[in-house]
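testing teh design pipeline on a random one, pls ignore if ur not involved
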């Protein structure tokens, strides 16, 4: 997330977003900025009914007893999330948008070291990933807001890197996606699709991004790689993080 707070406010129709610095390498378990539907606006009010907050990237259903004994769910497969016990309630009641400047994905080619890619909207700018969130309450009464990003099949721009990509909600459909009062998951299922071809730039970058301690703009510097033909690595079936260390293989 390298956009300014003002850019985020404008795209997501927010009255105000707390000031934040550019973040070039956001990793699971770290805070991510999300946008949700707030209480209905008062009649005649010009204020937005959306709100922003920070949540921990790693979804915890409310029924989890011990987070230490539960897997880290940084993403959820959109095709099955509404049916999964972990995600069902959030898909119905707590849908969110995740403002982002893009994302990283890693391509594996046999035993070679995985090649990272910086994937961003063409022309740069900000996009909104579709996601779900939940407030987990500990036995002593503490509360932690947590979230996961929904994924779908890769589009033509990214399939050579990985067979999955984040769900991106078009701006015209922000209200539909966030409206959990009047719509159910089946009413917004048509939004859970890959982006149109030609929407994204796929830029090879160095392995600096593999270490979450590398947080500067140098992690996005392009490198030259010898590309092999054929699709990228296929993800494991199921939901959540499909392996890798640090910041690798998130989708």
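output:
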């Amino acid at each position: 997330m390298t956009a300014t707070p003002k850019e985020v406010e404008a795209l997501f129709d927010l009255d105000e977003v707390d000031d934040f610095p550019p973040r070039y390498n956001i990793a699971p378990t770290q805070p991510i900025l999300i946008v949700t539907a707030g209480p209905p606006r008062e009649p005649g009010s010009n204020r937005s009914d959306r709100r922003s907050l920070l949540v921990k990237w790693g979804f915890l259903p409310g029924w989890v007893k011990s987070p230490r004994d539960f897997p880290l769910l940084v993403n959820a497969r959109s095709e099955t999330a509404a049916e999964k016990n972990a995600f069902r309630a959030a898909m119905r009641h707590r849908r969110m948008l995740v403002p982002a400047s893009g994302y990283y994905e890693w391509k594996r080619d046999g035993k070679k070291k995985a090649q990272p890619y910086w994937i961003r909207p063409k022309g740069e700018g900000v996009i909104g990933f579709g996601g779900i969130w939940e407030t987990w309450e500990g036995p002593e009464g503490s509360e932690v807001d947590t979230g996961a990003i929904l994924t779908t099949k890769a589009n033509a721009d990214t399939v050579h890197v990985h067979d999955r990509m984040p769900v991106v909600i078009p701006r015209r459909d922000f209200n539909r996606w966030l409206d959990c009062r009047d719509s159910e998951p089946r009413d917004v299922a048509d939004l859970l699709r890959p982006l149109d071809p030609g929407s994204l730039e796929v830029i090879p970058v160095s392995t600096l991004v593999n270490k979450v301690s590398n947080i500067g703009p140098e992690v996005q510097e392009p490198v030259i790689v010898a590309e092999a033909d054929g699709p990228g690595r296929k993800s494991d079936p199921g939901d959540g993080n499909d392996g890798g260390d640090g910041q690798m293989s998130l989708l």
